[in-house]
Task: structure prediction
Amino acid sequence: MQTLFTNIRQLLQIRPPGTTRVAGADMAELPLLENAWVLIEDDLIAGFGEMATCPTGVRFELDCTGQLMLPSWCDSHTHLVYAGNREGEWLDRLQGLSYAEIAAKGGGIVNSAALLGQLSEEDLYEQSRERLMTVIRQGTGAIEIKSGYGLDLEGELKMLRVIRRLREEFQFPVRATFLGAHALPPQYKEDKAEYVRQVCEEMLPQIAKEGLADYVDIFCEKGYFDVADTERLLTAGAKFGLRGKIHVNQFNAIGGVGAGVKHGALSVDHLEELEEEDVTALKGSDTMPVALPGCSFFLGIPYTPGRELIEAGLPLAVASDFNPGSCPSGNMNFVVALACSKMKLTPAEAINAATINGAYAMGLAEEVGSITVGKRANLILTNLLDSYVSLGYYFGGGLIDRVYVNGQYI
Ligand code: NIG
Ligand code: FE
Result:
């Protein structure tokens, strides 16, 4: 089955095969065609070009006059599988309590873990499925989802099985990350070493054996897990071929970035608190720094100094961090708008960060993240817009006319 899109005002993010990420000054360039066509065949992008070269005789044709087309957003950091919500904690924060104060009184991640423990796998799937459908309609075309609200073998397996089922039933690019070291379960409050041992020596081997995870993650932060724990987990993950995608420098810079780079982490995420030595560690590495501006917005913490990273010649990805505690939204359109207005990225930089670099940050750059012949036809067709600048300018919705997943109109 073929579909031909014609008269596209701007076709954004066209890349030759083999482009895996963009860094530094190159992030300011967003390759595009004006007045373009795109041909999709079954689930893949089969061709594209300027209207002067448009193929004829294709049965299904859609006139896109005045609209923009781009690859779907690649959301490389989410916790979309969770139980219930944490609205009560949010009300507490409105009264002045901080994220740390809420965690200290038994809320936060362990609160989500308790809720998850009470929910059947079927119900967890149903809740998560709704969220995935919502973000797909908002233009997400590939996603990473973490475990980390189980905090024991059974709960972590439950989450990872739900993630696998989402991938299979949606036929959607989903990457799974094992985040057993997300918080200390209350019964291990006095024995972190034992919990870390269980994560590395009991949970991880079982999860790897069942093929349930693509990556490992840890919350490297004061009051959670330290750099030694992080190094131990990344070493253990490597034995099973699982690279790290780690939570670092959200509230404090404690050396997690350097540790991640040293152990070949695919990405280091958050980075709201950044030291010179963190930037230096990232230079020349394969590790993608990932900013989560929705989390900064919702918690009222600093935004990741994205400009500084780009000006240091580094690449940058942005992701949603969709989770019930620090960012109850997976809307990547809003993430792109925040990246511009709050982190001072140009629209071109933000779109690169949310597409090709996001794809890289979850190991999917061969498959999604750009308009490239042979990549999956996961696409966004916008409403009537003047240019891609609008994608950073308008926030809060109203940008998208249609989304396509595997060449199918959703
Ligand atoms: O990325 N920082 C750790 N993990 C999540 C928050 C998870 C939660 O509060 O439930 C984050 O912000
Ligand atoms: Fe997160």
